Amino acid sequence: MMKLWLSLLFVVCLSAVSGSDSNRKPNIVFIFGDDYGFNDIGYHGSQIATPNLDKLASDGVRLENYYVQPLCTPSRSQMMSGRYQVRSFFAPWLVQSPDVVSVTFLQQYTLCLSMLPLSPFYNNTPCPLFLYLAYQSVHGPLQVPEKYEKQYRHIQDENRRIYAGMVSVLDEGVGNLTQALKDKGLWDNTVLVFSTGIPFNISRGTPSKRTVLLHNIDPLQTKHGVPLYNDTFHTTVRAAVRVGHMKLITGEPYNGSWVPPPGSAHKFEPDQRRPHQNVWLFNITADPTEHHDLSDHMPDMVRTLLGYLQRFNKTAVPTRFPPLDKRSNPALHGGVWGPWE
Ligand SMILES: *[C@@H]1O[C@H](CO)[C@@H](O)[C@H](O)[C@H]1NC(C)=O
Ligand SMILES: *[C@@H]1O[C@H](CO)[C@@H](O)[C@H](O)[C@H]1NC(C)=O
Ligand SMILES: *[C@@H]1O[C@H](CO)[C@@H](O)[C@H](O)[C@H]1NC(C)=O
Ligand SMILES: *[C@@H]1O[C@H](CO)[C@@H](O)[C@H](O)[C@H]1NC(C)=O
Ligand SMILES: *[C@@H]1O[C@H](CO)[C@@H](O)[C@H](O)[C@H]1NC(C)=O
Ligand SMILES: *[C@@H]1O[C@H](CO)[C@@H](O)[C@H](O)[C@H]1NC(C)=O
To answer: Which residues belong to any copy of the Sulfatase N-terminal domain (predicted)?
Structure first.
C-alpha cells in the first residue's frame, strides 16, 4: 500500500571516551532533519551528495529498518515526550505550535536550543552539553541559494534539483557542527545522533529487543469501509502497527498508488485496492516496499495484529486538535517560534 514512509534515516556516532574524561557524562547532540527521505542520503546510493552524513554513518551505528512519522510535528512530539502520539497530547497530524521542551534530562543536561552558526559553545564546563538541533530543512517550501542548486544541474526535475541543494545545505551544516565540536575539544566525549525520527534502545551489533511498533492510530481521519470484525479494533479507522515481520494497515489510505523514489528503476503503480477495502497485511522482511497484500491469505494474523491495535487504543489519550491560535504567529514574538502564553 505502497505508502512511502518518509524519513528513515538514522545515524549514531559514538566516540570513544578515554582517560580523564571517562567519569564525565558525555555531551549529547541530537540533530533532527525534517521530511528527509531514505533515498536522499549518499550512502543509500542517492544522486545527492552528503559527504558529512556519510562519514558519520561509516564511523557510527546505522539503523536501517525503523520508522518515523511521515510529518514533522508528530516526529518531534514523540522525540520530546518519549511517547507514542496516541499517548501524548499532540494531535495525530500537523500541529501549528512550537515544539514544547519537556525533556527529563533537564536536571542533568544543559539544555541548549541553538541555530547555526554555533554561538557561545560551552567549553571546560563541568556540565555536559545537551544540544537539540531541530532543522526545518529539508521541509518545504523548496528554496535554496543558487550555489547549492548549481551542483545538481544534471537533475532535470526542478523541484528535485532544489531539494537536492537543500540536502547539501543540511549536510554542510552537520559538517560545520561536527567541526565546531572538534575545534572546542568536545568531540571525543560526544554522542551525536542524526535522525529524522525517534530511536529507542540503541546498541551496537545486536538486534533490537523491540518487536512491536505502533505507527499510529488516527481517529481524526475519515473512516473508510465497514468494520471487518465486530469485537476488536475497528478497521474503518486509520492505523498501522508492525509486529515482527508483519505490518497491518487499516482505514482510509487516500492515494494508494506506489510512487517510486526519483531515479529508481521501479515503476509507478496506480492504486489497485478494492473499493471499501480497509485492511492490508504485509510481510515487511520479505516485501519491504509493501507490494503484496497478504490480508486475504492470513486472516488469523490480521486478527492478531488488530488485537495489538485494540490494546494500544485502550491506552490512547483523547485527541486534541485545537484551532489555529493567531497569537502564536512568530511575527509577534521576534520572528521565532516559541511558547506564546
Ligand atoms: C559552514 O561554514 C562555512 C564556513 O564558516 C560557512 O561559509 C557556511 O555558510 C556554513 N554552512 C552552513 C550550512 O551553515
Ligand atoms: C529498552 O530496553 C529495556 C530492556 O530491554 C526495556 O526495559 C525498555 O522498556 C526499553 N525501552 C524502550 C523505550 O523501548
Ligand atoms: C458479532 O458478530 C457475530 C457473528 O456475526 C454475532 O454472532 C455477534 O452477535 C456479533 N456481536 C455483536 C456485539 O454485535
Ligand atoms: C478506541 O477506543 C475508544 C475509547 O474506548 C473507542 O471509542 C474507539 O471506538 C476505539 N477505536 C477503535 C478503532 O476501536
Ligand atoms: C496519486 O498520486 C500520484 C502521484 O503523485 C498521482 O499521479 C495520482 O494521480 C494520484 N491518484 C489519485 C487518485 O489522486
Ligand atoms: C516473513 O518473511 C520472512 C522472510 O522471507 C520469513 O522468514 C517469515 O517466515 C515470514 N513471516 C510470515 C509470518 O510469513
So the answer is: 26-89, 126-195
